[in-house]
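[job 4417] fold queue: 2 targets
>>> target A
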Amino acid sequence: MFKLVFGFFLALVFSLLITPLLKLIASRLGILDKPGFRKIHSQPVPFMGGVAIYVSLVITLLVLGGRSNDLVGISLFGLAFILFGLLDDAGRKMRARYKIGAHLIFAAGLVYFTGLHFNFFSAVWINLTLTVCFITFMTNSMNMLDGMDGLDAGVAFLASLFIAILSFNSGQQELMLIALAVMGATLGFLRYNFNPASIFLGEAGSTFLGFILAVLAIKLNIYGLWDIALALKIERIQLISFIVPLIVLGMPIFDTYFVFANRFLNNIKFSQPGKDHSHHRIHLMGFSQRSTVLTLYAIQFILGLIALAMIRADVQQFFSLLAIVAIFFFGFTIFLSQVKVYEQGK
């Protein structure tokens, strides 16, 4: 247990020390996020914060976690997401379809290298396909959510906190080590990324956080839900178990669904950049950046608490909690949709 907790502090210290160095390097190389239509900041801000998180996390895992296939795979394919994202951060923009294609390839590479995949169905190819698609989805969801100082890193910190608790409950020590290391790396980065931020994650960092959160969610098993699975005559526990990490990741999942649904209803291209995300709308209500981000932190925290409550619930309680989450999604959708962000006629 000491080693696991030490992993959190080791990643935290590395992140606190490495982030200022990456900030300096990004400034010297001109890898900056410049002000623009979709930007809230008024001065150029260095990217490469994601590199600091990646380096802090990987050093911690390789020092304390050994050389298991999963840890090596996370390191190698996490690096692929970082390097590919740095191309965008450095100004070499690519179409969304090419980015998603690359993310699918990296996700498939991880699945092939580690053997990590869902166990939903008897047909293995369906499980593999769903695994690759989920990793790609979360990668892009976290990238889309990254629109305010400290938002992505804070959500990742809270999500990994609850996954660490859940993995402790299920006795998954390696998973707990990864989650605690993510917590330390993101918390150290938040020292420089919370409003007013002096460094941003960049596409490299946001996609990497989505990647690592997806891996944590896939690896998590909630064995305490066997009674519910048996009551529903479901033979594979992960079909029920996976609902819990989905709720833990509810904030980026909601934002992606919300943006795509609204763009579909307003005949706007899904790939078109815009200020129509959940955080943009809350900000337009008159909330400051800090208040907006703290509000979304609170929602993320509540979703985490609901996920914790589900692991000890009976069938009735389980579906009652699930209904609460569904009502929240529906209510928050209606509430945020009242904020007008599209031009008339679009």
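>>> target B
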Amino acid sequence: MGEMNVLLVDDEREFLDVMSKRLRKRGVSLEVVTSGGEAVRKVAEEPIDVVVLDMRMPDMDGLTVLRAIKQSRPEIEVIMLTGHANVEAAVEGMQLGAFDYLMKPVDLDELLYRLQDAFKRKQLGTPQA
């Protein structure tokens, strides 16, 4: 299996700093951006495999970003994150093609497990169920 390239998208800088340090310590190749607009630009320009995407951001909400990513690069897997339990948004995200949905604060081992699963599916080209 090749190296996984992850894009972490969240407007909370403290969360980004902590998660990016912890993921990099685990050997994850990672880029971080603080807005949905930056995320859409990044996936258009970089070889991203999996996006970890916050649901609530000031410029674009996570579902809007998910739609844009899936429209331009449908092979990219997206894991949605939220600090707010919202079943409707989770269901809509999954219908739009999100790989998974996790609650903040996210457990690092759980996130790594989901990242690896998403990366495997992307490499295999397995269609979304």
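[job 4417] complete. Note on B: The chain has one domain: 8-122.
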